[in-house]
Protein 1
Amino acid sequence: MRIGWRTYLKQAFRKKSAYYAVGVAISLDTVTFCALRKQGAALHVAHEETVSFGQWGKALSRWTEKHNLAGTPAYVAFSIHWYQMLQIDRPAVEADEIVAAMTWSVKELTGSDQEMVIDYIDLPVPLAGAAKVNVIAIPKKDVATTCEYIFESGLTLRHITVEEVATCDLIEASSDAILTLVQEAGEEICLNIVKNGHLYLSRRLKGFENLGSFTNEELQMGIGESLSVQVQRSMDFYESQLRQAPVRQIKLRLDTQHTDALALQINQVVNADVSQLIPAGIVCDTPLPLHRLNYTSLGAALGATKAMMVVPAEAAA
């Protein structure tokens, strides 16, 4: 990406934004924008909009201009459709050499000829006695396009991350492990186990993409039980393989009107408190209630200090 001096100077000397952050969630068919404003100790969701993926850059520019968001820090989260996540042994090199050391092995494992942007997340504890990392690989052309759209909109790009990491920031840091189930409309369920702000385990639960179309009675006919089994398996792995204390809290945000009924079903199978996931300290000023917003874009905006991938604008060059 190349810009002229006039454009650069215009952005460099722009007055400070009145907004706290903008989160951008990029899914397969849609892109969601979320703007946060800080008022006292609370963060307010001031605006949210979902647009089709085609021409989303122009839609972002119009949305930014409409709400006077120019200069606001922007945090982007890609959905699973755009990247591959691999777990490999942590290379025995210095921290600043890890990405370079993984490049060839990741290229071989992904089986892709595309140039990739690579970053990683350290597992907080060894697995089977070995230090592991979760590697994320995103095609560079997709990162470059995203950087260009953010810059052209007048927002200030701060971080690019992925859905698993963004949803970690929906809960407050706790010394007790919390299992979260987060699902956007028509998507797979993202299961995370988070402790002290660190991602210990992340899984994609397939087969629940149509959860929102089922009635409460249909959920009682095996779907809720199947979901409960997947949750219990994840908890067992966390305890036995990662040698951690049992998970006692489960937070849900699923694509269904029957979250309470599903919570009750899960609670009957697993030994944990199950409740709806409502981010603390967030006030919703949009027509939709907080639990109906896109949690990936909200988590991205909340994750300024924890976002996994730091991609400056020149990455699009």
Protein 2
Amino acid sequence: MDKNEFKRLMDGYLQGKLSTEKRELLQRWYDSFGESEVGVPGMEDQEGMTALKEELYGRIHGAIQPKKTPLRKITVFRWAAIAALFVLALGTMVWLYSHQNDKFGETSTHVVSAYHQIRTGIKQIKKVDLPDGSMLYVNANSTIRIREPLLANKREIFLDEGEVYFEVARDSLRPFIVHTPSLKMEVLGTAFNVKSYKTLDDVTIEVQHGKVRVSDSQRVLDELTAFKGLNYRKANGQTERISLNNDEVNAWTRGIVALQKADFNELAQTLYNLYGVRLEHGEGRTANHHYNLTIHADRSLEETMAIICGIHNTKYRRKDNVVTIYP
């Protein structure tokens, strides 16, 4: 539908002269762009959209202003039609504005207030290309929100749950900021990983190259450079510096998870991400064990559990999606 036809339909709607066929055409056109990611048909350029917006508002305003004529009854239907048209036009403009930078590519996203939200499930890893040239790899069972518009004075990502590896395009004028429920990371251009699952005691930040400034709500905690990391204990705010190998930071994006001194909760989260099973511990010391091992996503659960049990000479049993380790 082009602009001229759209305006003719609006005129007819205001004047109550649209046929049933035209009304259905208008309704089908309106319904068609509710889920679109390419823009409203017939209003692709900003200049045309602005001019059409002003004209529509003028026509709507003229339709609802009282005229200098003798008072007469206005039916409920007439007022409902005018209100519906106003909502239609306003909703169109809001939709256009909120989708101008909707170019997230191969992701499953939807608009929530002023954010794009991305969720992943069990065994899912999503790659997200941002309009500024940055790339995100979102690990399984994660939720992130991307503030819109991203191309403003700063670029903000909210990691509500899970793990994300960031490859940030350098932009000295617009810092790239990542928020977790307890921390803030600020960079200009770098590659780094943030792990912040609710089941884990720590938030872990690992830098592959560049520099990352880490802060909590009160102060700057550290500035991390290449192959350095930070463990932040959520319960008391204590931090621990860690050193990394070159291939450790984003190995999970290739299906390889390297665990170093991992406690039971971290091991359980890893197995849930990769296999969708819940790991539990039986009686004894199994809850206090720590693990150094590398888990490959292409191995079967049985192969992985044999390696895990071999570390502390334990056994396991499985019932449905629950795996229990016991002495």
Protein 3
Amino acid sequence: MKNKKKLLIATDSFLPRWDGIARFLFETIPSLAEKYEVTVVAPAFRGRAPSFPGVSIVRIPSMKVSFGDYSPPKARSKKIRSLVNWSDLVFAQSIVPTLGGLAIYYGHKLGKPVVKFTHSIDWKLVSEAVKRGKKPSEKIAKSLTRFYNNRCDLIIYPSENAAREFRKIGVTTYYKVVSLGVDTDKFRPAKSKSEAKKKIGIKPGKTVVGFCGRIGREKDIPTLLRAFRSLQRQDTELLIVGQGVHELEKLLIKQKNVVFRGSQNNVLPFFRAMDIYVLPSLTETSSLSTMEAMSCGIPVICTPVGKMKDYIKDMKNGMFFPAK
């Protein structure tokens, strides 16, 4: 432990609230802990706190206000500054609303190396996630993106396309492209599709159209529901795995032939039960869930956003439909 560098991971998304960032950290923290003395500062979402061998987790209480399904962590500036001062390296996963941005700010101010992984096109995510004030929200998000990203020493992008998006708005920080991948030994096709469906309580004879991810407005779940209803087939069910905006969850619960399973710690059994995977997102960077579905041998139908335009070839290994 004495010979290990001290790594502070600052994130505004973490377990037990599952989303793309939480999935990324769940997979990468064990490996990072082998090389670094790791401390994670993250929001204290409701539910059982996660644990990783040899990793310290500092949970910051959330505010009482909520935005959709998200309650931001409180801005504990003194605590974040203290953690940054302790560290040898800061690894930020977000810039807003509080923890990632504060860690970047104090890392820059205290002369600590700051690395940020880009999980989303922040201004697009914000503008699609809000009901009102999309243009001013996008403008503010772009300004914050420039401010924080230009105070990092290295930005990691999942694709060249994502890097170009950030360069266009004035982010000039040195960067590297590191593509996300999937554990193909874990995400493998089901030996028996019928048995896979039985395991999650779906009749083997049903055709299962599936989605796995956060139920956010930017995921455009209503479009998926409209497309599913237009099929008018009693032998087909729509399987939704994830949690998010409560009004969208209520909409799913009321639908005929829709199986809504909420957040799951292990998504593999649900992927294996699917016959078709659909991602109707309005914005993405890589879409780990789409890659996991493909690794499980599931045909995918997606919007042509983010890196999906690179790894999906329309009508060859998947299909595209236009985003709303």
Protein 4
Amino acid sequence: MADVSALKVKETRATVLGEAEAHLVTSYCDHRLAPACKTETVDFRHRHLQFEDSGFNFLQYGQEVSVSSRGFEEFYMLEMPLAGGVDITFGTERLRSEPGKALILSPGPKFHSRWREGTRQWMLQIDRKLVDERLAQIARRRRSGNPVFNPVIDLATPHGRHFTFLLQIFSDMLAETADPVEHEAISPVLTSVVDELLRNIAFTSGASVVPERLQASPRHVKQAMDILRARYAERLMMSAIANEIGMSERALYDGFHTYYQRTPHEILTRIRMEEARRLIRNDGLAAAQAARSVGLHHLGRFSATYKDTFGVLPSADIRQDR
């Protein structure tokens, strides 16, 4: 167990961008900061509480700043804007956070972000080993690969409000008038955050790009998901699926937003891409054949979506495996 005396709030301030960059490199991982305008003057403030291999942070730059990094390797980062927001390219996804919309960034992908002027964020750094341990305990079996969470969290949902409540507890620990922080007070709150992620935020693991959930979804969402998995090669209309399972199209979209953080069409596209890749890599089908087999008939759009999903064109996958 960590030494209680080590749990102290540290604060760093800087007025020059280079000083802020040097501090972040030693605190997190390799970062490159660039000003949005010619001046490198910033109002950088970082309050930080480290507990073992996780930590809670308050961070601001003051000015608009661009941030580039090779990615997090040993931790997840839960980012919750208090003001302003961040535009980020994370792997192949383009994301946007703002008050009311948080992000959970998983280990691995490179990222480039633009912090808007006046942005202030809570940032919870979560040790990936803790996520793996809790996943094994909740799922009652080991899984291959770290979970990669769907990154956008709607803070208006019940689980989103719970995330806000939990991070507020950490924020209270950062207050200048707060009492000394004991490790015993941190561990249950951090575990609650991880469990909330695993139970309510869909994720992919291993080679799959189709998100899954540990906690059961409502019957109508499960029925729709079963249809997408079984009939992906058909020309599926979401209005027809909603009618088939006896609900409105709006309720169908709301259900997928809440339980998968994706639209039904996004899930269908991922199912099709995963099956197409199997056909290309395992069965040796050409890209056009694979596309038609999963219900897609525009080869150009198929290839572009394939590259967005896997980072490589289908023709490159063929060359690699043959």
